[in-house]
Design goal:
single chain, 630 residues, alpha+beta, Heat Shock Protein 90, Ribosomal Protein S5, domain 2, Four Helix Bundle (Hemerythrin (Met), subunit A), 3 domains, nine-stranded mixed sheet, 24 helices, 38% helix, 20% strand
Amino acid sequence: MTTVEERQPEQHVFEADVSRLLHMMVHSVYSDKDVFLRELISNAADACEKLRYESISQPQLSADGTPSAIVVTLNEEALTLVVEDNGIGMSRAEMIDALGTIARSGTKAFMDRLENAKAGEKAELIGQFGVGFYSSFMVADRVEVISRRAGEDNAWKWSSDGKGSFDVGAVDISEAPTRGTRVILHLTPEGRKYTSKWTVEKIIRDQSGHVPVPIRLIEKDGAEPFEVSDGAALWAKPKSEISKQEYDDFYRGVSNQYDEPLANIHFRAEGRHEYTTLAFIPGSQPFDLFDPDRQGRMKLYVKRVFITNEAELLPRYLRFVRGIVDTADLPLNISREMIQESPILSAIKKGVTGRILTSLEKMAEGQADTFSKFWELFGAILKEGIYEDFEKRSQLLKLARFHSTMSDEATRSLADYVAAMKEGQSGIYYINGSSLEQLKSSPQLEGYRAKGIEVLLLTDGVDNFWPTNVADFEGKPFKSVTQGLADLNDVAGEAGTSDRGPQASPEVAAFIDFARGSLAEAVADVRVSGRLIESAVCLVATEHGPDRQLEKILQGAGRLQTASKPILEINAQSELVKSIASMDNQAFREDAAWLLLDEARILDGDKPTNPRAFAERQARLFTLAIGQGK
């Protein structure tokens, strides 16, 4: 029985500046006020778990056989939200100790330690009981806690406005739960939205829908409770007990998409760190796939309690993956900023990334059609990892698929390419551009096509960057067909193709020397081409530096003040070039040289060097041709 003194409310003065604590929580620990409900439900679930454990040695604590449950009650008129559990409950001493942790230890000292601690120490500090509970004051101007410990006859009430003190006193057991704790939040006017059934139900489903205790919601006083969560986390069940429909439904809930996933990846990691992952490859591109911030959307849970969906659990090139990671190795009450510094999270990220890439490898080997669909949707994103992730580069290169001159529709792997390389071929050839149609008509491909040499057609934005950052694939270097000299003479040709090198008649050689002088301000060199078969001219980049397409992108983005001069290659066997070379008219030859350069630019997808000069030269040649034709 309680004494007369205990029945009188006793005021305890906070020893620290609680307003500073609340400021820290709003701006450092919690950036989303919705989490107060997650914290209260988490505490309630912990209380139910504690009852279960203590009942092992003291069966009388739960002798009534009532199953664990958490009930959330809303009252819009009274502007209150109540979270009640039938867990272990608290005695008077436990209530003062548990809800006074911050006051007892000193808020100022707590925050000073938090600000000065290292990442690992911060996690332990943030995890102290009491910080999560105090998040209630972000939405309430007064909080009351009524609790009755299992097996005891007395009930107690804690009350505070969070500004400087709290009261603790006895309360009649008729006003208290049979056992457990009832937390009553008197909401601020800004917190009125938390009396909305739809708002609260969504928060519970999103953030606490998988705590190991059923959660029920009462829309208003007198209404029947309805179950929001059954207390069973899908990812905690054995895979053999989960149907495809259950996986698909969970995917739609966690991704906010209504398609059918291409695949799910469900596993439990054990060892130094234990965690469960349930990840999905979507069946369509998420709307935010090309968000400039390239953020992932994997949700982090700790002990089945939602923590954040901004924990960067996967590298950005896997941002299309949707799902959850649940671990018991992190503290519950922890800020997003501190999570990012956690070595535990880094280890989890590495493990989950490895499993997803391995699953994609298995898909590529055993489900070719599914992988083809996957690559069509997300290949351009996955290739970002080739550029960014050195550690996984080899694995990503094996997964990568490309269009090439040897395939019209189907994509090819690099392993396919290497297996089909011609005798004498030393590298993996590629060409960059904005579309397949443009690339297939590029004059730079003519010599390679004639030799039967496969060239990869790269059209994704990231394709302009990773080839120059990758040394080789299985010992074969990547070579751009628009850069440097073409080394086609060492490659065995197809039957019926000529193997002529870059040879020129004296007339053509003389014209090339003339063009080199006339175009010196616009090109680095003019030379005989070893790669042209049909076209008269093409432009290529110098051996060192970026290739043509990358240089255009860098210049367009302001990363290059001035572009380097290209090299103009001339087909010495072209009838057009031979005819031009045979002309003695100096003015004609100069106009022809500039027009050949502009033709090469147009074939490369660019504009003439000087549109007006281009038109004037063209008009003079037309006039000359018309005069000769009369």
